[in-house]
Amino acid sequence: MKKPFLTPVLGFLFLSSLIFFLGLGRLSSSPLLAQSVDPDKLVLQGVQEYQTGDYQGAIADWQKALSIYKNSNNPSNIAIVSENLARTYQQIGNASTAVTYWQQAIDNNNQLGDLQKVGRNLTEQAQSYTALGQSRKSINLLCGNVSSDLDPLMTCFPNSALEIARQQKDQMGEIAALGSLGEAYRAIGQFPQSITILEKAAQISNSSYQAAISNSLGNTYIKQANRWEIQANSALLRGSSQGNTFKELADQNYQKAQESLKKSREIYRQEKNLTGQLKALLNLIQLGNQVSGTERETMIQESLQLLETLPNSPDKIYGAITLANLPDDGTNLTEPLAQCPTTRKLSQKEAENLLTLAEKNAKELQNTRVYSFALGALGHFYECNQDYQKAILYTQQAKWNADQNQENLDSLYLWEWQTGRIREAQGQIEPAIAAYQNAVTSLEQIRSEILSTERDIQFDFRDQIEPVYRQLAQLRLKEASNESRTFPQKEQEISQSLDTIDRLRLAELQNYLGNDCFLGQTQTNQKTELNKPNTAIFNSIILDQETAIILSLPNGEKKIHWIFENRTQVNSKILSFRQELIEGRLAINDYELTSAKLLYDWMIRPFEKDLQSNQINTLVFVQDGLFRTIPMSALYDGEKFLVENYAIALTPSLSLVLPESEQKFNQRALILGVTQPTVIDQQNFDKLFNVPLEVAQVQVNFTNHKLLLDEAFNRENLEKELNQSEYKVIHIATHAQFGTIPDDTFIVIGNNNKLTIKELEKVLRQFEGDSQSIELLALTACQTAEGDDRSSLGLAGVAVQAGVKSVLASLWSIPDESTLKLITNFYQNLAKNNVSKAEALRAAQIALIRAKQDDKINDQYDNPAYWAPFILIGNWN
After folding, report:
1. Please, what's the largest Cα pairwise distance for the chain?
2. CB neighbours of 77 closer than 8 A, spacing ≥ 6?
3. InterPro entries from the xrefs (predicted)?
4. Pairing state of beta strands 806-810 and 776-784?
5. 813, 830, 862: which is the final residue of a domain?
6. Which range marks the domain in which residue 474 is found?
7. Number of domains making up the chain
8. Which of 10, 90, 137, 789 would staple 98 via disulfide (CB 3.0–4.6 Å)?
9. In sequence order, what E strands does 584-704 have?
10. Same domain, 693 and 772
11. Would you say residue 854 has pLDDT above 90?
12. Residue 759 is assigned to a structural domain of this protein
C-alpha cells in the first residue's frame, strides 16, 4: 500500500493545511490614558521579533499590549492582537492556546459587528481544532454539519464560517473555509465529501489558494486510493470479483492524486513559492511506485536543492527529516521514526548531515514540537546504526522537549517507544519495560483522538501503535519465564502482560470500529468472571518469533506455554486448520484432522492436568490475530473434539464482557430473515432455502415474537419494532459479511439492500429502552474473509456496537440445512433451566457430532465443517 510519509496526529503534517493567514494585524489608533508603557510600540516590537523568529519575545510583548487594551476596553485592538497571538501559538505548536485567543478575536469582532473577520477567525480557529485532532469540532465551526448523508455545501448553519463568508460575499474567506472543511472531512475518513468540497473550492475564480487546494486534493485522493486498496485486498481474500473493481478504483485515484499534486507544484513554481514546491514534491515522491524511478530521482534532487534555499521553518525541518528517511527501493515506511530502512536513498553521511542541520535549525525556531521531532529523528538515525550512546542522548532530549506541552503526547509516545527499543537492544530490560510502559500510557491518554477522531491513521495501526503494546507484553512475558524471578514476580509479569494485551485489543477494536462508543463498558469485569468456578480463560499472544498461550484459572493462578515457531509459521498452521475444516465438507466419511491435532497440542495439551484438577467445564478464549478466525471447538485430542469435553466461548476482551442475566430471557424475540437470492455491491448472495424452516423453529421456541421476512425486513420496520417493543433475543437468518473495514461489514436485508455494522449499531441504540437488555443476537449465515484477522473483528464489533451481551454467529457460510438443526437444538437447550449459552451451543454441536447415532440427523453432519463454525462471543453464561 502506498501511503503519505506521516499522519496528522502522529507526525509531520506535510499534507498541506489551508492556513488562511492575513498577516500580522495593524492597530487602529485609539485615545489612551497616559501610560508608562505604549501598547502600540509593544505590538510593533512584537512584529519585529516575530519576523526574526523570536516567537516567545513576540508573545511576551503582545500579551502585555493585550492586557493594556483590555483595561482600556479597546475591542478593535484586542481582536487584532488576539489574532496575532493565536497565529503565533499555532506556529509554535500550541494549538489549544491558539483556540483560546481565536475565541477572544471572534468575541471582539462580533462586538464590533465585523462579520467578515468573524468568519475568517472561525476558519482559523477550526484549523487549530484540526491540529488538535478534533476535526469534528472543526467541521462544526466551518459548516455545522458532520454527516455522510447530507451535502455540507448546501446545509451549512447560519453562524458557520462558510455561511458567513457567503453572506459577506467574501470570496477569499469562502475559499479558505472550503479548503479547511475539505481537510477536516479527510481527517475523519470521509474522503468523497472531502473531494467534493475541495473541488468546489477549486472552481472559485480567485486563484490565491489553488495550489494549496490542489495539494490537498492530491492527498485526499491518496487516502481514498488507500481505502480502495484495502477493500480490494479484503474482497480478494473473500474470493469476490469486486477485488478487481476496487483495484481499478485505487489506480484511478492514485492517478488523480498525481495529477493534482503536479498541478500544485506547477502553480507554486509560477508563484515562486519554494515551501509550496517542497510540499508538493515530497507528496509526489511518497507516491512510491506510482511515479517512475527516474522521475522520483529527479524530484528528490530538486527537493534537496530547495532545502538549501528555503528560510528556516518547520516545513524545512520536516522536509529534511522526510528526505533523510526515504528508503532506496522506492517504497515508503509506514512509521519512519520507528522502522529502519534496509538502505536509505541518501548515503549514511548525507542523511546524518541533513538531520544534524535540521536539529540545529529546529533549535532556533523555539518550537518544542518541531525541535522534539528533529532530535528524535536524529536519535532514530543513530538507533538504526546501532550507535546507542548517541541514540539515547538525542532521544532523551526529544522526550524532554515533547514533554513541555501536553499537546505533544502523540510525539512523546514515539520517543518513549524509541527509548524502550534502545534500552532493550542494550540489554537493559527493566528500563526498557519502564519506557515501553510510558509509551503505552501516553497512547492511552490520546487513544480516543488517534483511533477514532482521526480516521486518517486507521490503517497504519499495526505499524504505528500495535508494536508498542506487543513489545511491552513480550518483554514482560520473557521476564515471567526468567528462572531467577520468584513465583509472585512471574505471576505479576504475566498479569501485567495480559493487561497490556487487553488494552491493545480494546484499541484494535476501537480502531476497527472508528468510534469509542464502547469505552464506557470497559469496566474491570475480569476478576468477577475469573472467580466463577469451573471456568478457565485462554489468552493467545502472537509475537514475531514465538507465541504465548496463557491459562488463567478460577483461583487466579496463571500458567504460560510457549510455541517456538515464528509468526509466519503459526499463521500458516492456523490457515491450514481453517482450510481443512472448510474443505472437509467434501469428505463424506473421512476429513483431515492433522492441523486440529497440532493446534490441540499447542494450546490445550500442556494444560490438561490443570484443567482436570480444577474441574473446568467452560473454556473462554481471548484470541489474537488469525486465531480469531478459527473455531476452538474443532481442536482434536486424538479421540474427541474439544467441544465434547468443554463448553466454549470467545470474547474480544474480558473488559467488554457484560454481566450475566438474573433471569432467563425466553419472553420475547425479534426474528428477521431473507430467503431470496440477493445482489449487494455487485456481489451475488445465494438463496437460503431453509430460512423459512429456521424462522419457524425459532417461532416455536419463542411464542412471544415478531417476524420480519424478506421485503418486511428493512430499516424502517426494524427501527419501528425496536422503538415499540423491548426484545431479549434478535435472531437474524440472512447472509452477513465481515471484511477488513466496517464498510465491508454488513447484513443483507430485504429488497437487495444491506445494513452496515454502523447502521445496525445506530438502529439498536436509538430506541429509548436499555440497549444492554438485548441478551442474544444470533447471525446464522456469516462469512469472514480467510486469512484476514481484521475481518473477525467485525463479529466482535457487532456485539460491541449493538450493546448486546452475547452473539451467536458463524465464521463461514455453511449449508442452511445443518444450520437449521443446530439452531433448533441450541434454542431448545437454552430453554432448559440452569443451562448457559455456551453449554447450550455445546450440546447442539455434540448432537451433530453424534449424527450417525440419530436417525433424525443427516449422517454427514458429524463433519466439523457443519457444526464447528458456530461460535459464541461475549457473555457465555
Report:
1. 106
2. 27, 28, 30, 39, 43, 65, 69
3. CHAT_dom (IPR024983), TPR-like_helical_dom_sf (IPR011990), TPR_rpt (IPR019734)
4. parallel
5. 813
6. 440-513
7. 3
8. 90
9. 618-622, 647-650, 669-673, 678-680, 683-685
10. yes
11. no
12. yes
Contact present, 838 and 820 (Cβ < 8 Å): no
Q: With a cut of 90, say whether residue 69 has pLDDT above it.
A: yes
How far from 333 is each of 3, 25, 29, 343, 521, CA to CA, in Å? 8, 42, 54, 12, 35
Nearest of 210, 209, 147 to residue 184 by alpha carbon: 147
CATH label of the domain that carries residue 773: 3.40.50
Q: What span, in angstroms and rounded, lies between the C-alpha atoms of 711 and 750?
A: 5
Residues 638-695: tens digit of each pLDDT: 999 999 999 999 998 888 776 666 555 557 899 999 999 998 877 888 888 889 999 9
For residue 503, count CB atoms less than 10 angstroms from its CB and return exposed for 0-12, middle for 13-18, buried for 19 or more: buried
Q: What is the pLDDT of residue 500?
A: 93
What is the dihedral sign for C-alpha 64, 65, 67, 72? positive
Confidence (pLDDT) at 346: 93
10 closest CA partner among 385, 307, 409: 409
Residue 833 pLDDT: 67
Between strands 705-709 and 669-673, the pairing is parallel
Cβ neighbours of residue 577 closer than 8 Å, sequence gap 6 or more: 595, 596, 598, 599, 630, 634
Set of cell numbers at residue 826? 441450541
The rounded distance, in Å, linking the Cα atoms of 483 and 171 is: 72
pLDDT of residue 660: 66
Judged against a pLDDT cut of 80, whether residue 843 lies above it is answered with: yes
Q: Give the strand pairing for 729-738 and 669-673.
A: parallel
Looking at mean pLDDT, say which of 43-47, 456-460, 527-531, 780-784 comes out highest.
43-47
- Give pTM, 2 decimals: 0.86
Q: Which three cell numbers stand for residue 457?
A: 491513521
